[in-house]
What does this fold into?
Amino acid sequence: MDKKELENFLLQLSDRFFLFAPQREDDILKIKEVENIEDIAWSTEMPINSWKDIFLPPEERLFENVKNNLIESKTDYPPIACVGVHILDLKALTLFDQVFGPDSYYQKRRKRTILIGYSTDLSADYKKHKVFSHNFEEDILEHLAFDVFILKLKNGPLKIYSGSEKGQNILEKFSVSSYQNIEFAGPIAEKGPDKRMLLLKDKVDKSFNKKIWDELDKICLACGKCAIVCPTCFCFDFNDSANPESASRCRQWGNCFYNDFSKVAGGHKELDTVKQKIYFWYVHKFVRIPHEYNLPGCVSCNRCSQVCPVGIKISEVIKSILN
Amino acid sequence: MLNIYQPQKAKIIAVNQESIDTKLFRLRFLDKKTQRDFDFIPGQFAQIGLPGWGECPISFCSSPYDAKKFFELAIRKVGNLTSKIHTLKVGDMIDIRGPFGNGFDLDKFKNKPLILVGGGCGFVPLRSLIIDYLNGRIENTVLQIFYGCLNEDTLLFKKEYGAWNRQAELSIILEKPSKKWGGERGRVTDLFKFSKITNNSVAVLVGPLMMYKFVIAELKKRKISEENIYLSLERKMYCGNGVCQHCAIGPYYVCQDGPVFSWSEIKEIPGVI
It folds into this structure.
């Protein structure tokens, strides 16, 4: 497939799906709805926002309160095609599929979307992130949730993969016949859980007395921006609206940096200091998610470091914990 | 696909003012089949709620052996939701999700002396264990109950003490009792002085965090192993399914891996008690 054929495929797709893709906006790469297919930025650079809003909206109605009965909200889940999803973001969504496996709201939304991944041919980019070894299909694609994957080979042509029945159907429907089928082999590689993840799990778990947390306590503003952009931050609150016009129970994004996160009736807060909060955030990424899912809770996208107003760099925090 | 956040309606069939701030609600699911199929383990909890008022976790305090007919929750008036629930009467409805959590592993209590230590309103889930013990459902155990409270007004389940005392050793201590109080005065750990505690005992602790620190230290002095000290933790929570993160401690979720943990499991987690 060449670029023209790809654009033609996406054009056809846009008849049935709302297309979302990374696009440049004042030189910043941002995921947003596509108006012109030519605007899609085919890049392995990380967009500043993550895809999670599409799968876990900042606010969604779970129930309507009808005469004191909670009735599941009827939501018309939009058909969305996520186009040009970075491998690291696919890793985050693969984790989401595990975390929200029993969540009917997530599953209904997820069913209506298609994930189209994009990457350039194996390059220094992968080595930088260490998690990747060199067999692209077996070591990477087989363990990612996606429907269609576009691999841009060094000299120009595009190699197409399907990663699900949904992906195959779409490719066939729009007459893309030359593609390779990838069978999803579960999120964890055959050779077992990632070794670096296991090392970090142990180190972060035992790190509370390290002075890095006291240093971060002094500089972190607990603004929560890292949690907002993080593709694997998925905590949430439930909120009931008492307004009689729209009485409902909603789910909203939580944020472990905010005081309400752990505050119980009576006023007690488990997470009171900035040190406790930022440690909690790291434990979620590097201890709790690996403990529960055997998957890394950080996909190395580095968004948190990019948005941090005081310049906290996750890679440096990790380096200091490992030392 | 089942909606895991969908609560079930339960009807209040009895209400009793247990203490100055706590009411005991006896509830039955409106749907007969839900009640027939209902079961829980002592130490587990429900997410209780009212549309418009949200949800909060409350431990069961009745016996699982009655679960096919009814269940009981002792609810302390402390926030908006619980204050609203306190206005409800027999015939009114409460939304229920659950049971959640692991509960007490009764197999681990077999053939060992059992010590229950309750502080304030934390005492609630211990009642399920006491009822089961009185009915001979915890094998080969002797039972000691230590209960510490602020004053007479905050003591729960007063009417049941006579029955408890006939089969178990019940000791109560109050921190700031009235002048009329003829019993012990002080903290729950002060009660240990008067009792013989054997080092092969299993201890179950439910109460405020401050109590845990002192009681654990005292039990360790009595050579009770950390594996045999169980405590039930209380945290903010929404989902009950180990996803929303609010109740997370170290690698665990209080709503799923807990609320009951052995001290040996969690003692390394910073700030856990």
